[in-house]
Design a protein that fits this description.
Layout: E1 7-11, H1 19-30, E2 36-38, E3 55-57, H2 77-82, E4 91-96, E5 110-115, H3 120-123, H4 125-130, H5 137-158, E6 163-166, H6 169-179, E7 184-185, E8 205-208, H7 217-227, E9 231-234, H8 240-246, E10 251-255, H9 259-268, E11 271-274, H10 283-289, E12 294-297, H11 302-305, E13 312-315, H12 320-331, H13 337-344, H14 349-374
Parallel strand pairs: 1-2, 1-4, 2-3, 4-5, 5-6, 6-7, 8-9, 8-11, 9-10, 11-12, 12-13
């Protein structure tokens, strides 16, 4: 039995509030003595819990405006991680949606990568730039040759990972397709305990999202404007200006809101709208933890969390009309609150923590057994 392994955690960057950062928080909870290595760290832009951690950065930390313009440094991230020097350890636990898995593990260490997704911008480039407001057509064309190099780097550095963990079956399929190898499944943690079921449900639909193109918040805005339904949009991002220009009088933009407000909105909304294709998607689980149903695009990780007709409904085409039809369907159905909360319970942090411990311990035991046989 492996006890108290010496673990080092590596993450792409700590500069935003997102599901990947929540995963790193839980990794830190499982291994509280582990230092966190990352390309850059912006304490005021990510979760406050990291201020209590031993966070170590690369030379990118000193890049001008790195926190606000981190995408501009895209060509430099591979070099930053390949030149990162980690201390001796038993396990390198990387949290990666692009770059962290490219780090070199110290001699004798096991490298286990929690893969949020193979880099979307590299492997699904056309998809990514089509609705990314910050990428102009000229810039998109200029970056295209770089994507081939990024894909080659992604495949090459994948060979230095001993075990891959996929955050959904969607991600596992992409790992198989792009890297030609298998992975184990471990859903990301969702802090379901911070949400409460309310009896005071109000007549508004809700979007909680970063306002970037691939999240497809435009579908929710257009569907609400088309049908005259009240929509509340909580979140901030580069697409906000364009969304506000197309929104009708029934659409309300709140910008970034604190966690307490998020929980209140989720408990009171008619339903959460989830319009993009995500590799997992934490917000639908948070809505279900609040006893509220989800209307989701029939693709990606939502198919693994939302139960059609039981905890929500799906729409099949990414058009305002298809979404509006799903809203009609939901309003004509009866979604049981207890079914929603019960489903959300499957993704609580305790499940993630125990699963991660089991995977790490198992891999270390296998490594130890192999060394004994070699001896």
């Amino acid at each position: 039995m492996v006890t108290r392994p010496n673990v080092v955690i590596v993450h792409d960057y700590l500069g935003q509030l997102g599901g990947a950062e929540r995963v790193v928080e839980e990794m830190c909870a499982v291994y509280p003595d582990a230092p966190v290595f990352t390309s850059f760290y912006a304490p005021d832009r990510t979760y406050a819990s990291f201020r209590e951690r031993d966070v170590r950065t690369t030379w990118l930390q000193h890049g001008p405006a790195i926190a606000s313009r981190h995408k501009a440094y895209l060509p430099l991230y591979p070099l930053a991680f390949e030149t990162m020097r980690l201390p001796p350890c038993d396990v390198v636990l990387s949290s990666s949606s692009a770059f962290a898995k490219g780090v070199h593990a110290p001699p004798g260490a096991v490298h286990i990568c929690y893969c949020h997704a193979p880099a979307r911008f590299a492997w699904r480039y056309d998809d990514y730039v089509e609705r990314e407001a910050s990428v102009s057509p000229v810039l998109a064309a200029g970056l295209r040759p770089l994507m081939g190099a990024m894909r080659a780097w992604d495949v090459r550095t994948n060979r230095g990972v001993d075990m891959l963990i996929g955050n959904s079956e969607v991600t596992r399929r992409r790992i198989r397709e792009y890297y030609g190898r298998e992975s184990v499944l471990l859903y990301p943690p969702v802090d379901v305990d911070r949400f409460r079921v309310s009896e005071d449900v109000e007549d508004f639909y809700l979007v909680i999202s970063r306002l970037v193109g691939y999240k497809r918040v435009d579908l929710a805005v257009e569907a609400a404007t088309l049908t005259g339904r009240h929509l509340v949009v909580a979140g901030e991002g580069p697409a906000r200006g364009q969304l506000e220009q197309t929104a009708g009088d029934t659409v309300e933009f709140l910008g970034r809101v604190p966690d307490e407000t998020v929980a209140s909105l989720l408990s009171r909304c008619r339903a959460l709208l989830f319009c993009g294709e995500e590799d997992f998607g934490i917000v639908p689980v948070e809505a279900m933890a609040s006893g509220r149903p989800v209307i989701a695009y029939r693709a990606g990780g939502a198919l693994e969390t939302v139960q059609d007709g039981l905890t929500g409904v799906f729409f099949g085409d990414q058009t305002p009309e298809s979404l509006a039809g799903a809203m009609d369907e939901l309003e004509g159905s009866r979604i049981d609150r207890s079914a929603c909360t019960s489903r959300a319970f499957d993704f609580r942090p305790e499940v993630f923590r125990s699963g991660l411990r089991a995977i790490v311990d198992s891999e270390l035991e296998k490594r130890g057994s192999a060394r004994l046989k070699e001896g």
